[in-house]
Amino acid sequence: MSTTDQATTTPQSGMKRPKRGVPEGLWVRCPGCQATIFRKEAEAKLGVCPECDYHFYVSARERIHQVLDDGTFEEWDAELTPTDPLNFEDKRPYRDRLIAEQERTGLRDAALVGEGMIRARRVAIAITDSAFIMGSMGSVVGEKLTRSIERATEHKLPLIIISASGGGARMHEGILSLMQMAKVSAALARYDQAGGLFISVLTNPTMGGVAASFAALGDLTFAEPRALIGFAGPRTIQATIRIELPKGFQTSEFLLEHGYIDRIVRRADLKSEIARSIDYCGK
Amino acid sequence: MRRELAELKKKIYSGLSPWETVQVARHPDRPMTSDYLALLFDEFVELFGDKFFGDDRAIRAGFAKIDQYKVLVVGHQKGKTLQERQACNFGCAHPEGYRKALGKMKLAAKYGLPIICFIDTPGAYPGVGAEERGQSQVIAQSMFEMARLKTPIICVVIGEGGSGGALAIGVGDKVAMLEHAYYSVISPEGCAGILWKSGQFAEQAAKALKCTSRDLSSLGVIDDVIEEPLGGAHRDHHQMGARMKMYLLKSLRELVGMPFEKLLENRYQKFRRMGQFLERPL
Ligand SMILES: [Zn+2]
Fold it and tell me: B277: distance to nearest CA of chain A, Å?
């Protein structure tokens, strides 16, 4: 369920993971087209390559600016903090890893949740950030999402979840991470029963236990172009079946072709596309 | 002499390391879904196919009778002979398997049949076809629907509880594990490959993942542990079957007849409570 293994095999994540937005420096090389581009220019385009439309990583905080109306975001459950329920230790203890990730990203864990306005429509919004342990879902991410879904149910708000979780369910919290998949899905089932509108936005990368839980359960599913989205990591698949993977395998375009995505939405259009869908479906 | 041997065996099996537990859980002679079907149930009427793509032999489903109860059984099947194992993909189900399971479970709920799920899989199948046919989608959909199916659901991990492929038929009112089964977010080998950069560290990973029945019990993830016969379930299918039957009947008596509202609320709250975190002001 944890599929962090694609990190070394895909061009999208071949670049060093930046702290936030487009990599530091005046000029950056685009992983999509290899062109050297002016950083300011990519940033002005919401973190998209002006040459080839490659969508760079953007942090959860940056997403808020891109999607919500200015100054409308109110964060929920910021006090939720991860712990180390298994005393997990691989090459380094999980608790040390958590502290390092928190310092590096300025986040307590991989999800930012709250409410805000999208073109004057009130929504509940949750965003996972792939910079924090590959955006993987442990207890905190699961709890934040579940509380957001429950509030959205109670207050009859449309729900937007933007996923960037290459790590799937977080191994370091073991079975508790796996169970978050069931917990969040159960909350979504109730939200659905209550008639709520859930728009799931898949971004690069969304894999494993996140792809196979809430991210797959949208009433509407959008994906940014050329994002890596799938259940099993490409390396796991290759190790199992020992054949060359088809070109474009597990990209947004591949998923659209196979019928799992409603629309591929460029980052610049995301806000207006969400607003329009709420107008069609929202109450 | 025999008693001493039994005592020794008891001591060994009560002190299995996590990695040894994983080996016992994978033992080829361990009773499988098909064994429990033969041992516990008076009848099994298999229902095939997902009415969309095909019939996946890695998951079996059908009507069954246990004492006075008519139920639906769903279970992973790993296969006994090499031929059967290959036909079952060693218990790794494709999307059509999960789609079949969910389809039959919805049928059961419609007609008020309780559902019994036997979980025994290394994981959902990782492959090109599986991705093309929506592995993520069906696993998510299955948890989502199981959370609200209006009928009692009893899930037992009988061998391997491999990640999302296990959880996809693991959302129930009662979730139990056999004593020497394991249930994990990822296989020890997979975890070792990612975090230790080598499958050689599977033993360490098995320990770190806290995936035994005792661990899951203390983490509040499972409701019950079903004790295995001395030396493991593979040593005595009949005794294991008898214990399983006792557990299932006890659970059925408890759940059948409970108002759906209460049943579903309890099911929701059970999963709702899972997870550990702190609430610390900024
Ligand atoms: Zn480019």
Answer: 5
Complex ipTM over 0.95: yes
Break chain A into its structural domains and give their ranges. Answer: 58-281
Euclidean distance between CA atoms B143 and B140, whole angstroms = 5
pLDDT for B194: 93
Q: For residue A205, report the distance from its CA to the centre of ligand 1, in Å.
A: 17
B157 touches A: beta carbon within 8 Å: no
For chain B, the domain total comes to: 1
- Containing structural domain, residue B254: 18-269
CB neighbour class for A34 (10 Å; exposed up to 12, middle 13-18, buried from 19): exposed
Which residues, 6 or more positions from B36, have their beta carbon under 8 angstroms from its beta carbon? B75, B118, B158, B241, B244
| B22 inside 8 A of chain A by CB | no
CATH number, position B146: 3.90.226.10
Contact between B152 and B255 under an 8 Å Cβ cutoff? The reply is: yes
Is domain A58-281 annotated with CATH 3.20.20.370?
Answer: no
Q: For residue range B155-172, list pLDDT tens digits in order.
A: 999 999 999 999 999 999
Looking only at the bridges linking them, the beta strands covering A121-128 and A159-165 are parallel
C-alpha–C-alpha distance, residues B201 and B144, integer Å: 34
- Taking the Cβ of residue B264 and every Cβ of chain A, the question of whether any pair is shorter than 8 Å is answered with no
Helix, strand, coil percentages (3-state) for chain B, rounded to 5, are: 50, 20, 35
- Note if the bond before A205 is cis, omega within 30 degrees: yes
Q: Are A50 and A41 in contact (CB under 8 A)?
A: yes
> Is A231 in contact with B124 (Cβ distance < 8 A)?
yes
Quick one: CA dihedral B231, B232, B236, B239, positive or negative?
positive
pTM over 0.90, yes/no? yes
Is residue B281 domain-resident? no
- Nearest CB to A212 within list B139, B195, B274: B139
Which phi and psi angles does B243 have, rounded to 5°? -65, -40
Tell me what pLDDT residue A1 has: 53
Chain A's closest residue to B216, CA to CA, is A175
Mean pLDDT of chain B: 96
Please report the pLDDT score of residue A22 as a whole number.
66
CB contact under 8 A, B185 and A142: no
Q: Given CB atoms, is B272 within the 8 Å cutoff of chain A?
A: yes
Domain assignment of residue B10, yes or no: no
Helices and strands per DSSP (H, E), number in chain A: 9, 11
Q: Which amino acid is at A171?
A: M
**B126: pLDDT confidence band, cut at 50, 70 and 90?**
very high
